[in-house]
Amino acid sequence: TDPSVNNDTSAIQDTAGNDAASIPLTNLPTDDNHSTIDSTAPILQSVEVNPAGQLVFHYNETLDGNNPPNANDFSITVNGQVVVPIAITITGNDVLLSFIPAIGIGQSVSYGYTDPSTNNDTSA
């Protein structure tokens, strides 16, 4: 139902600003529901240190950029020393871990990640 009687931006509108007609409550037949649930976990494809000295985890699908993992979910060593990322960002299929100082050319890096929960949730 249009919340107002005028043609305004509080309703579904066409590009000319005309409100769409109200639709009474209607049940959608279950055979018309073609939505799908993504139940497949992202798969790690590769890991590298980029030119900015960040550790980059490349996955096979787009990741949730609004809920990055916590720094303590990772085990990272650089030249045998434990390091903790100062920032974790997600861009597309990639998880980027930033460090101070940045990882340098030729440094040895070891990495691990542990999902902190057993459920598919925003903590992972």
Give a structural overview.
The two termini are 39 Å apart. The model has no long low-confidence stretch (mean pLDDT 85). A four-stranded antiparallel beta sheet has the order 1-2-6-5, with no helix packed on it. It has a three-stranded antiparallel beta sheet with strand order 4-3-7, with no helix packed on it. A hairpin with a 2-residue loop joins strand 5 (87-91) and strand 6. The chain contains no helices and seven strands. It has 124 residues and is mostly beta strands. The chain has strands at residues 44-49, 55-59, 74-78, 81-83, 87-91, 94-98, 109-113. Residues 1-38 are annotated as: Disordered. InterPro entries: SWM_rpt.
Tag the structure with descriptive keywords.
124 residues, mainly beta, single chain, four-stranded antiparallel β-sheet, 7 strands
In oligomeric terms, what are we looking at? single chain
| String of helices and strands | EEEEEEE
Q: Any idea what the radius of gyration is?
A: 23 Å
> Into which percent range does the helicity of residues fall?
under 10%
The global form is elongated
Percentage of β-strand residues: 25-35%
Total count of strands: 7
Average the pLDDT over all residues and give the rounded result. Answer: 85
Structural class: mainly beta
Poorly predicted residue ranges: none
